[in-house]
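cache lookup: miss for this entity combination. No prior model stored, computing from scratch. Input as submitted by user K.M.:
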Amino acid sequence: MSDKNIPLRERIILALDVGDKTQARAIVRRTESHIGFYKVGLQLFMADWFGMVDWLVDRGHKVMLDLKFFDIPETVRLAVAQIRDRGVSLATVHGNDPILRAALQERGDLKILAVTVLTSFGEEDMRAMGMTQSIADLVAFRARRALELGCDGIVSSGLEAARIRHELGARLLIVTPGIRPGDNAAGGDDQNRVMTPGQALAAGADHLVVGRPVTRAADPVGVIEQMQDEIAAALVGSAC
Ligand code: C5P
């Protein structure tokens, strides 16, 4: 666990994975008593471009813009320049050293997260792509490169967080998707490398990206409260 004095309401980054701004705004209005950090990803960005980002920022919320830039370095550099001065807190970039370096050139106050290996990936997906490395080794390698290049953080599953903290220390921000409540830890969807909120925090994650377990719940605020209780307990446990 790394102590960066992150308020409880910013530990969960709620993924607004819906197809239009009306639905997205309804989720925000329903949850913002508990949540102060939202993620705009590809689906919502395609629907509303910067409209939703600006609305969230104007409302005083932090925004993770998760567009996972992956292109030649110059294109990534110019894309980062487009989102830099809009009040976004975190942006995600995929790729090798030149791509990450290009993104970092334009970051300004924006924090750049390097995506290591998607949490939907399993070992069998690695084999299918002809890769012989384990996911844990690949994530550790990419996390080290991200740190050495000056990235602010990484996106990884909770399963790799403990090793990254052990090997690389506290400086990197670890943002962890693939979060599932204890009663649904197997996921049952496209996520593969999953953990409960408490496990991920205890392993060293700083923020947890949560989407469907909250947005598709009958009682979203109830799920958030349960997760935040777990997070608070993991934080207390780590301080003992
Ligand atoms: O619904 P669920 O909780 O699985 O949502 C996870 C969110 O995290 C999705 O918006 C997905 O795009 C994002 N994400 C991920 N794995 C990564 C990076 C981002 O699942 N490595």
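stored under new cache key. DSSP finds eleven helices and eight strands in the chain.
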